[in-house]
Amino acid sequence: MATKKEQMEKVKDIVVKLRYLECMDNIIYYDRWNNCPKDGFDYEGKVGAYLTELSNEKLTSKETKELVESLEGETAFDSDTDKGMVRYLIGKYKEAVQIPASLQGEVNQANADGQVAWGKML
């Protein structure tokens, strides 16, 4: 069994990587609405779907599952930052296991398709 410090190091590593993926997705989303040529919407939608897939793989891994199970209900943390990271990870984990990856990808693609249709209307 990992120590609390080791668990928090794993939590931080996972959360940082998830936030990197989220930042990349946000940059693509902004670009899609503000700078991307209409012909690039489909490609950017596919990239967004891939980022969602990477995030989902990280969240649904055995390591993350075990970490979430061991920290769920925990109340004693060294800092509010640690508490927030654990709360963020648990929330993202629950979302990932409740919504199938295929559906998340379809939603991402539907968003991109909607933006293509919106762009045609402009």
Keywords summarizing the entry:
122 residues, mainly alpha
Could you characterize the architecture of this molecule?
With 122 residues, this protein is an all-alpha fold. The chain has helices spanning 4-34, 41-59, 62-71, 80-98, 101-121. Helix 1 crosses helix 4 (80-98) and helix 3 packs across helix 4 (80-98). It is elongated.
Number of helices, where a helix is a run of at least 4 consecutive DSSP H or I residues: 5
Helix/sheet category: mainly alpha
Q: Count the E strands.
A: 0
**How does the overall form come out from the CA principal axes?**
elongated
Q: Any idea what the radius of gyration is? A: 17 Å
Residues in helix, %:
over 70%
The poorly predicted ranges are none
Share of residues in strands:
under 5%
Distance between the termini: 57 Å
Q: Describe the biggest sheet? A: none
Order of helices and strands: HHHHH
Please state the average pLDDT score. 87
